[in-house]
Amino acid sequence: MGSYIPSTKEERQEMLAAAGYGSIRSLFKDVPAEVYLDKPLNLPQGMSELEVRAKMQELAGKNTVFRTILRGAGAYDHYIPSIVKYITSKEEFVTSYTPYQAEMSQGILQSIFEYQTMICDLTGMDTANASVYDGASAAAEAAAMCRDRKRSVALVSAAANPDVIATMQTYCFGAGTELRLVPAKDGRTDLDALKAMLTPDVCCVYVQQPNFYGQFEEAEKIAELTHAGGAKYIMGVNPIALAIMKTPAECGADIAVGEGQPLGLPLGFGGPYLGFMAATGAMMRKLPGRIVGETVDADGNRAYVLTLQAREQHIRREKASSNICSNEALCALTASVYLAAVGPQGLKQAATLCLSKAHYLAQELTKIEGVNLVYGGEFFHEFVTTLPKQEEVLAALAKEGILGGLPVKEGVLWCVTEKATKEALDKAVAIVKEVCA
Questions:
Q1: From CA 267, how far away is CA 253, in angstroms rounded?
Q2: Lowest-pLDDT range, 76-80, 229-233, 285-289?
Q3: Which of 80, 155, 304, 427 shows the greatest Cβ crowding within 10 Å of its Cβ?
């Protein structure tokens, strides 16, 4: 943003004169004198560009940077084509935020429309919004969409990401919705328990696909049980996995949500991330946040508008079911650029590599005595194993620049993306074998 200069000193003086003021101080004459800062701030002296670079490199050197990451659990290390950052770093995108003067913001509206279209293509759903803060808040907002006066209980699979469950619990508590956990059995949602818990007061069922343990759920059977109980079906999905698995629409979901971080957003020490939400046409008017629509103007030219604004908290606050105020426009644009750059085949290739490399690592690890798969079901790019000498193994991996799997109650949750090379995986296996010997 180096060339972004809003106004010169002369222009500011002209604006003050036009408003009838001679100085900035006179413009703020109603501010009490004791509030003004009339002495220099206690700040260190400025540094040259060379000194700043050296200082930043010194600070960055304190970070631990792993060459290979074998950990996921909700945030994933995927390859991001260089064109993604090149485009999204352009000042016209960085400085564009939320379209409060919507019809004057055709560029940003078009980018959001393109994003919505791509999310609908991925999920198979009829409509998508302009995104929310992250995958966890998307899941929580989806549960709020389903609540009504007669149904105020949300069922959430215990096999979902614990952080997502915690966020949903917070939202449900604030909205007066009761959240009940459906037990997991053998790493997947217990269908018998789900069937028994589908009482008439249940408004929705949330299941993650693949789930926190990497396992594929019986998504279609869950849809049948959920709809037979009169509830709505919410699927939390991994956008990369959607390239090779059935879409939420094909599985019978009413709402599809997920974390968009794998779509071109770096790990970034935890954010900013991107929550995507898509729904069937029947649920469209309950979808929170902004929805951009395509139309034509008075001259018949294509134009974009914010539509269904009666849903928004700034239109009918007393009827609003959500207070989502941000559209995460830059993160959504990043996802759009990433999807456009890799294309359908590139996305499928990334997903296929994740799947095959994860299965290769699982196969090699389980050749080591004491290392076994905890769950026997099909998995995407994450899996749980037992691991003898867990702390020693993870420390030995870290020493060689490899971030090992995440310790969980059942063992270690490993993750492999397309970025992990065969050489790196073989090296990790060799380290595990040596420590466990």
A1: 29
A2: 285-289
A3: 155
